[in-house]
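Thread amino acids onto this structure.
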């Protein structure tokens, strides 16, 4: 897919940060900086999106919605105006505060569990504990491996690459359950 999205963020604004499609022309309105991220994929060959609104309370879609959002809510996705959930893979081309959260929210696709940017709450139950969390996860990180300089006073970058990669996200089991039941 590889589609680049550009927004402008007022980095001095309070959370939630303000994101716009075009840079404001009045510099007195804030410190506006360019944000660029690349959408590398949406879903995979099996899972594109799951409907979370359904007229049947026993449907698989309804179950997925209540497993991703706070199950104490009567109709969690519908209360947020959400019809679908999907997995989106992005690559940051710039690094600004709240960039992924703000850019996706500005597109009308807030992250599940991101209350500040309109994604509602996401409560997970595991090992007899409950956590509130966002459905966002770093899956690939690459940087130049640093080494100490000769007098061991500072780290300096080298040409050696250090790479970390995860194949699955914490919500994968929920999407796999959904896929099996559809």
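Threaded sequence (182 positions):
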């Amino acid at each position: 897919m590889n589609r680049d999205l550009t927004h402008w963020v007022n980095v001095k604004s309070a959370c939630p940060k303000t994101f716009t499609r075009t840079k404001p022309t009045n510099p007195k309105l804030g410190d506006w900086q360019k944000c660029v991220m690349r959408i590398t994929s949406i879903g995979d060959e099996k899972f594109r999106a799951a409907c979370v609104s359904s007229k049947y309370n026993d449907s698989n879609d309804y179950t997925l919605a209540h497993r991703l959002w706070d199950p104490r809510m009567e109709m969690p996705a519908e209360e947020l105006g959400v019809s679908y959930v999907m997995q989106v893979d992005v690559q940051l081309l710039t690094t600004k505060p709240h960039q992924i959260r703000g850019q996706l929210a500005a597109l009308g696709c807030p992250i599940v569990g991101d209350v500040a940017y309109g994604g509602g709450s996401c409560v997970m139950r595991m090992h007899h504990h409950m956590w509130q969390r966002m459905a966002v996860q770093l899956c690939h990180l690459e940087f130049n491996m640093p080494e100490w300089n000769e007098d061991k006073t500072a780290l300096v970058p080298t040409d050696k690459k250090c790479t970390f990669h995860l194949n699955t996200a914490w919500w994968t089991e929920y999407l796999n359950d959904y896929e099996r039941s559809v």
